[in-house]
Specification:
- The structure holds 3 protein chains of 3 kinds.
- In chain A, 74% of the residues lie in helices and 8% in strands.
- Chain A contains 4 helices and 2 strands.
- In chain A, helix 1 packs antiparallel against helix 3 and helix 3 runs antiparallel to helix 4.
- In chain B, 83% of the residues lie in helices and 0% in strands.
- Chain B is built from 5 helices and no strands.
- By secondary structure, chain C is mainly alpha-helical.
- Chain C is built from 17 helices and no strands.
- The two termini of chain C are 32 Å apart.
- Classes of the chains: A mainly alpha, B mainly alpha, C mainly alpha.
- At the A-C interface, helix 1, helix 2 and helix 3 of A face helix 6, helix 9, helix 10, helix 15 and helix 16 of C.
Amino acid sequence: MKLDVNPTRMELLRLRRRIGLARRGHKLLKEKEEELMRRLIPLTKVVRELRRRVEGLLREAFQKFLIARGGMDPEVLESAIVHSQNPLQVEATTEPLLNLRLPIFRFTASKIQDSRFKPSYGFWGTSGELDTALEEYTLALQNLIPLAEKEKALQLLAGELEKTRRRVRALEYRLIPDLEETTRFIQMKLSEVERSNLTRLMKVKDRIDLDHRQCREGGDQDALNQPAHHGSRDRPE
Amino acid sequence: MTEMIGGNALAYAGAALAAFLAGSGSAIGIRYAASTASGVLTEDPEKFGLLFVLVVLPGTQGLYGFFSAFLVMLKLNLFGGEVLSLTTSQGWQVLFSCLPIGIAGLVSGIHQGKVCSAGIQMTAKRPEMAFKAAVVYAVMVETYALLGLVVTLFLLFFGIKL
Amino acid sequence: MNPSYDDGDTRYAYAVGRIRTLEARLLDGQRVERLVEAKDFEETFSILRETDYGEEFGEERVASLQEIEQVLQIKREGAYRTFTELCLDEEVRELILSTQDYQNIKVLIKGSVTGEDSDFALSQFGILSGEKIKRIFKEGRSQGFSTHLRKAVEAGLSYDTPEWIDIAVDHEMFRFWSARAKEVGNDFILGFIQLILDLENIQTFFRIRRGEGGLSFLEKALFFNGWGEDTMSLHRDRFLKAFESPWEGISSYFFATPYERVLREGGEYLERKGSFASLEKLCDDCRMEYLRSTRLMTFGVEPVIAYLYAKENELKILRLVFLGKLYGITQEKIRERLPEVF
């Protein structure tokens, strides 16, 4: 679709600059899209695998926890869990990738990093199944944090990819064709204007020539010749 | 004179022992059975009918004792106006004839009470066994109180000639 | 004549009568089996309708886990009330209920150490109610406690990590139980305390063996009875020696003890599936089997004690069944943990 601009030479120059810019931008964005895709595909695989594992672990841990819960007195369970001395602290930083800032989560000040889980309750009344359940939750958590990190990255990448792709499309199918059409239009318009100017000039020149001759010879002859003359001059254009 | 009083005193002692020992046995026995029955009935009042027999069973010893004591009184013609006077040896005879029901009543009463208590506990869980087993077992204990009574009766009627 | 041997303590004639009726109302094995096999909640409730739980699970719709837990808690309260009412011996009552007091002490000490408010975990079933024990503790008047609880408070306060507070207080608890059981002089109670002590040590043994802490931790965590090492049916040395042994060899250290099967089967299951379910089930079964001996006692406090634990066991069964139904745990998994009925 043609843009709504004044068909002037200035505009034409401006549009030509814009086309150049759009072409360059299109190329860059295309490259970015490819790069994003290149990163996205392995990441989806990683996330899918990680998610499957975390879900499996959580399911297992939950079942064990339920069995433990069934086998314990409610108040013993509550007091065993509420006083947990395994605080969990996660440090969040970011890592730049293209124009994105991907999150990085790291465990700090936590016993979770230890592979072996140490319960913070005594043995009487508590179930061994609770140990194993909490241990498995810990294991799940060790995978859950990276999963959160990866999944967020995946989301960001996917969002970015979509945006980039939309821009590429917009450039490719909209802006660049539009600009090109407009420049063509302006060029045509300009050449038309030029032609009409030329004609007008020639006409004026003929008029002036005729006037000169009349003044010199004082006859109507030239005035009669003029249309034929005019036609012959016009045709080759 | 002293001899005559001695004979009667011994006979009275015999009657008293029969009533007292057998009665005590029954009282203790019923206490066990009745306590347990109360416990069961607290939770399940509908079992009253089933448990009644088991609570009453240990009471028979007391009746036997009372019956024996009554016989001694009849023998002495206590209600006929003139009380017979017994020699010392006759007094001893009456006293000893009373012991079988007295002692058997005491011991069997207590134990029957326990058996009945156990029977009541069983009835709480298996009501259908109340008469099949619980009462039968209790009656087995009863047998020996009854034998004691029979011995006492024979001794009183056939053993002693007043 | 001492009534405690012969036919038992006949003061309990009434209590035992009541207990027998209550025992008759406990869920039997068949019904539990049907509960496990029930397809959904609806069916579970319809099975319970004809039982002691009919009133709660019958007409009204109890749907959420919270409501179920509430009902179970009410039933538990009832069992403790019955026990308190029927147990005529102050010493025995204190012995059996003290576990709840110790639980409360642990909650309070841990709460004061970690700063975590955990008063909701206070048990109401102890000799002292949760509120009372809390008030005494907060005011720092530990002389308001009886001697054994005071000792436990002191022991617990000398540590600052929750697990050690628990362990210290639990040790005091077993010490008190042993002493009190000896004082009462009832063979059944003595045997029962010894049994739970042994079972607890067996579970602790396996838990430390698969967790961390090692031998030195085990040495500190194992419980004593207060009657001297040699009277223990499972000597601590057995555990310490068996600690490094591979699992196949463990049960041989416990050869010819009543727990050989528990150790062998529970240990094997733990090793193969990494789950304590079987071990805990076997321990529960051991306890129930011991308590089942009270069925033969005509008089005495024993059936009263047994009923309390039988009821707790039943509530445990129901809790497991309901959790299984609610969260879709497979029947096999539930069965592996489900203790036998009394």
